[in-house]
Amino acid sequence: MSSSKITGSSSKIKWSSFKITLSSSKILVSISKITRSSSKITWSRSNITWSSSKITWFSSKIRWSSSKITWSSSKITWSRSNITWSSSKITWSIFKITWSSSEITWSSSQNTGSRSQIAMIVANMNQKPKQVQLD
């Protein structure tokens, strides 16, 4: 993603190539697709698999616990996260995202997404964005 960047306002974040759009309580990802089998969630075209204790992205790992996710190489952290899968929705509580030196924080009592509306930020974490622009 040589032209990757984040553009943001109070209601919307778009990530080029992956087209992540945040609108009030939902994060919509148009390219990636989520599937669920037992306790595993898989994103096609993003090479993410999630089980009860670990998220793996290519050769790197995100440490998962009941309270936080830490992505060390790109410095993305979710604090106070509580992500659960129930029926066809993903629900999570208040979370905080830190990307490099720029910080984006979202607060909400409950955010949900259907299987086609991935309720997590999906991006190419092996490369930092060349431009971060927050409006």
Characterize this entry briefly.
By secondary structure, this protein is an all-beta fold. Helix content is 0%, strand content 51%.
Low-confidence stretches: 1-135
Instruction: Tell me the fraction of residues in β-strands, as a range.
Output: over 45%
Mean pLDDT: 37
Q: Please tell me how large the radius of gyration is.
A: 14 Å
By DSSP (H or I, 4+ residues per run), the number of helices equals 0
Strand order across the largest sheet? 5-6-7-8-9-10-11
Silhouette: globular
Order of helices and strands: EEEEEEEEEEEEEEEEE
Major sheet: size, sense and barrel closure?
A: 7 strands, antiparallel
Number of self-contained structural domains:
1
* Helicity, as a percent range: under 10%
